[in-house]
Amino acid sequence: MRDGTEPDPGQLRRVAVASAIGTTIEWYDYFIYSTAAALIFASQFFSTLSPASGTLAAFATLGVGFLARPVGGIVWGHFGDRLGRKAMLIASLLLMGVATVGVGLLPTFEQIGVFAPVLLLVLRLLQGLSAGGEWGGAALLAVEHAPPGRRGRYGLYSQVGVPAGLILAQLVFVLVTAGLTEEQFRSWGWRLPFLLSIVLVGVGLFVRLRVAETPVFRTLAAEQAQSRQPLMDVFRHRPRELLLASGSFVANTTIGYVFLAYLLSYGTSVLKVGRNLMLVVVIIGSLTWLVSIVAAAIWSDRAGRRPVYLAGSVLLVLWAVPFFLLVDTRSPALLIVAVVVLNIGLGATYGPQSALFAELFEARYRYSGVSFSYAIGALLGGGFAPLIATALQSSTGSSLSVSAYMAAVGLLSLVAVIALREPSPAEVVGRLTGAD
User: Fold this and answer.
1) How far apart are CA 338 and CA 285, in angstroms?
2) Count of CB atoms situated within 10 Å of the CB of 304
3) pTM of the full structure
4) In angstroms, what is the C-alpha Rg of the chain?
5) Closest C-alpha to 378, from 141, 103, 162
6) Which parts of the chain have pLDDT scores under 70?
7) Which end of the chain offers a freer environment for a tag, N or C, measured as fewer CB atoms within 10 Å?
8) Are 380 and 68 in contact (CB under 8 A)?
9) Quick one: fold of 9-433?
């Protein structure tokens, strides 16, 4: 800490929980939305279209969330650098909760006509806006509270929300579909996962309201050193870091969405593998991702952020072709091997990310820098990955075309990581504490 005092252990525990729960809610909300878009939204909100067109329209609303993320990164980043990390985290959590519960309460097309899909689109936009700033605030809440030498360890709490949210969403939908008839699910049961989000939001608010503002921002506020135009300052002073940080994230989010959003559809519809087996495979991969995130983040405190990132980036490139060769065998054991190795690479390029991105930008415009980098990387990578993968496989008839896509994107991020200079310890201290 800048004043040399030791952080309170109880406060650090609350910080860790507050950081983790926000990203878990974000990804829980995303995955229940994507699952509902595949299962039910076509009949509920696009009933005048053919089933195929309705499904495409439902999935199109997913993309809107990604388009809104950079805007969210700009808005939350600006006010996070001006007003504080804690206030923006509470606001983003409330917005995400309102939007998600709103989807669960939304009337159908049969009830209010064209206003139903319009409102669905608006709520998805709100989710995207919230997500654009949620990660940056959660990452900084953890990293700026972390004791020296443990920023990777504390930064991991904002990263585990992806696999945790996926696992939670899958479990909720499994329980809902198992406990209801098909008619009950289509009538009202699909709304339950969205309405249950209010429980997570309530817990998240309780935790976040008890967390103190980060020491870094308290110092900036006391000295009245906040940037007046933080995003402009990022572009003015750290354009290289902004570009390379965004590029470093493209492969992780692209390949991550191939695993999270495309693999289940490919396995069940193209390979004709049983849905239950594919769900088990995805859950095992998600658990591997969670464990590897923790291991990579802790390792980065000893080895440095860049070496861990490089190791993961190389693995993602090299594993792109073997991944689908193993998946195409339809063998349960080889399917598991394929996703386990892939998720080790994903964990290595995601676990250290909070600490790395925070260390790249000065305190007075850090929220804007990390949020915008993350949002742009997510938009360029994850926003279109499932659509591109589906188009490649259907047009070529071969999963190796998807492997080539994964490898190409992996090489792009690998180049960005190689070009990204990790700050020296002295530079890191200056940037993190706000010292000039």
Assistant:
1) 9
2) 15
3) 0.86
4) 21
5) 162
6) 1-8, 38-39, 51-56, 58-59, 383, 426-436
7) C
8) no
9) Growth Hormone; Chain: A; (1.20.1250)
